[in-house]
Design brief:
The protein has 154 residues and is mainly alpha-helical. The chain is built from five helices and two strands; from the N terminus they run ααβαβαα. Helix 2 packs parallel to helix 3 and helix 4 packs across helix 5.
């Protein structure tokens, strides 16, 4: 018997686990527009990052995944859902479950599920980071340089 006092055996949860990121949000749209215009800052008027809503495309993405889940056999459909407290993540899960016909599936919001916090770099484009915080840009390049090194390039 294991130390926890429960006998070993088949777990009570499903063997299938489906993990999805959140769908597209208005911050994604504003970021893409800022990059295309060569701006330093992402122009979006939303208070906290966690309050950024889904974009129209994001709502359509969540609905499409929900319809796909609805077409799956019952043994592959979720019996529970887990979301971060971010509005865009909760909305993705709610739309997905509704479109899947699984509105009765419990949605648990877990405060431990968070996106990265960017602090002083929040809502800056790459150009903005380079211009306003060159030391941070250099540190970031040094930290991720290994991911872009090509074999044999020295």
């Amino acid at each position: 018997m294991p130390r926890c006092g429960r006998p070993l055996g088949k777990p009570a949860w499903r063997e299938t686990f489906l993990s999805l990121g959140r769908a597209g949000c208005v911050l994604d749209v504003a970021r893409d527009e800022a990059h295309a215009a060569g701006l330093e800052r992402i122009d979006i008027d939303v208070g906290r990052d966690m309050d950024v809503p889904l974009s129209g495309l994001g709502e359509a993405q969540a609905a499409a995944v929900g319809r796909w889940i609805r077409e799956q056999p019952p043994e592959l459909q979720p019996t529970g859902a887990l979301s971060s407290p971010y509005l865009r993540a909760k909305s993705t899960a709610e739309i997905l479950l509704r479109e899947a016909g699984l509105a009765d599936v419990p949605l648990t919001v877990d405060e431990r599920l968070r996106e990265r916090e960017f602090g002083m770099l929040d809502r800056l484009t790459h150009r903005g980071i380079e211009q306003l915080f060159p030391d941070q840009a250099a540190a970031r390049r040094a930290r991720i340089a290994h991911a872009f090194a090509r074999a044999g390039s020295g």
